[in-house]
Write a structure and sequence with these properties.
Blueprint lengths: L2 H21 L7 H4 L6 E7 L3 E8 L4 E9 L2 H4 L3 E9 L2 E9 L5 E11 L13 E16 L2 E18 L2 E15 L2 E8 L6 E9 L4 E10 L5 H4 L14 E8 L1
Antiparallel strand pairs: 1-2, 2-3, 3-4, 4-5, 5-6, 6-7, 7-8, 8-9, 9-10, 10-11, 11-12, 12-13
Length: 253
């Protein structure tokens, strides 16, 4: 073997040894770094950096945990971190593969999960007395660049959506969406699912790179829709020949 080949093997062995040492560090070494993240508290670290567990992650709006991960070895030698991750989120869960590189990009692959739809209640533009249903997602990939969505592809679902406003219950059924995104521009093509809800609905929601958004669509009440879900649609204006009324609104996040 040439001198250059021997040096190359030595360097590779040295870095492999460093990776081994780092991976064997206890997972608790993460906790001091979490103190630098505003409004985030980590509790109960166990295991190692290679294969570890955080009992809970607390934020003002959300509690996640336990969070478990298992690192892959070879990506570390390329300056990347790759791990299989699983986490419980309130009454739901998620699992998938996470990859981060030295440029700061974070990629999620095969990210799947479900969660109670009530988790989005604090972010609604309207006041509701109660919100229930089940959200689910199946994301083929999602890339974050500078912690902003950059590219994505996947499917979103909402099941058994129901809300209560001023003591009136509104049952909306199930909906589905197809998520796509590229270069910071995200889009969801959505529609009702199964034809069992009170509204026949489809449209598109777009999020631009500057965090401005636009939601467009059309909707009509099904024949068996109750009056309290049929009447509000009249405020959208006149219906077309097929009974659809169009809507459009936008803003900035």
């Amino acid at each position: 073997m040439s001198r250059r080949g021997i040096i190359g093997l030595g360097v590779l062995g040295f870095f492999s040894f460093l990776v081994f040492l780092v991976a064997k560090l206890p997972a608790s070494v993460i906790l001091p770094f979490a103190g630098d993240i505003p409004d985030v508290e980590l509790r109960g670290a166990s295991g190692t950096l290679w294969e570890g567990r955080i009992a809970s992650v607390h934020t003002p709006e959300l509690q996640v945990g336990p969070v478990e991960w298992s690192l892959s070895a070879w990506p570390l030698l390329r300056g990347q971190a790759q791990a299989d991750v699983r986490a419980d989120v309130e009454d739901g869960q998620l699992n998938g593969r996470l990859r981060a590189n030295r440029a700061g990009d974070i990629e999620f692959h095969d990210l799947r999960g479900q969660f109670p739809i009530a988790l989005i209640r604090p972010y609604l533009a309207m006041e509701v007395d109660d919100l229930s249903g089940q959200g689910a997602f199946d994301i083929e990939y999602l890339t974050l660049r500078e912690m902003r969505p950059y590219s994505a592809r996947g499917e979103l679902r909402v099941l058994d959506l129901e809300l209560r406003v001023q003591q009136h219950n509104f049952q909306f059924g199930a909906y589905q969406g197809e998520l796509t995104g590229n270069e910071g521009e995200m889009s969801v093509r959505y529609s009702d699912a199964g034809g069992e809800g009170p509204w026949d609905l489809d449209g598109e929601a777009r999020l631009e790179a500057d965090y401005s958004f636009q939601v467009e669509g059309r909707v009509r009440a099904r024949d068996d829709a109750p009056d309290h879900l049929r009447t509000p649609l009249e405020y959208l204006g006149s219906a077309d020949d097929d009974g659809y009324r169009t809507f459009s609104f936008g803003g900035s996040l």
